[in-house]
Amino acid sequence: MANKKIVVGNMKMNLTAPEINKFLKVIEKKKYNNQVVFCPSSLYLPYFIGKGYDVGIQNIAAYENGAYTGEVSASQAKSMHLDYAIIGHSERREYFKETDEVVHQKISLALKENLKVILCIGETEEERDSLKTYKVLKKQVTNALKGFDSKELKKVTIAYEPIWAIGTGRVPSNDEIQDTISFIKEIVKGIASINISVLYGGSVNEKNITTLNQIESIDGYLVGGASTKAEKFMKIIEVVVNQ
Ligand code: PEP
Fold first, then answer.
1. Pocket lining: 88 vs ligand 1, CB cutoff 6 Å
2. Other Cβ atoms within 10 Å of 144 Cβ, number
């Protein structure tokens, strides 16, 4: 049987504690059967843990433990019973200068702790315009996943997020997303002969989800802005879960 699609909410550095409490009151009316992953700011993770939701951290440290002020390690995340770690988000790559090597190291630490990984990849607008999308994606995937065996890679999901689509309201056509996802799946088959799950992320909202959800090869969505508004996020989830 095909895997069920998942919806991952990357809430980034948004919402205050009272706002999170309001959010929780709306979402707690539903059961999500492991199809929804909530990734709030690390400070609020305990509000989501142990309530039957799948929960993920937005980033982990590239080090095992020790004197790294402000960082959270993979083992700390696991010890709080988190399910997922988002790794290599374009905002981490851009603002915190995370290289493919750092991304690889973080994946390695997460897998060692048996966390599921959501690896983010995507091209800039300039790379897209100069027809370099596939080249860039191949490099990102290969550098991030080289050296892991198929058992480890089964714990990895890729989120394809064109950087020019994040937070902009612009979304590639369904055909473009379909082709790119198929390309990414082929790359991973070449590395480890497994069928990897690939999510789409970039301006997914309650209005475009029905159209996006017609894409055949898609395994789910990574949602940023719309995941911080409980009602909007619930509408997205409804479409995906009730498909
Ligand atoms: C993201 O940053 O992962 C994202 C998909 O953001 P948005 O949905 O706001 O474009």
1. no
2. 25
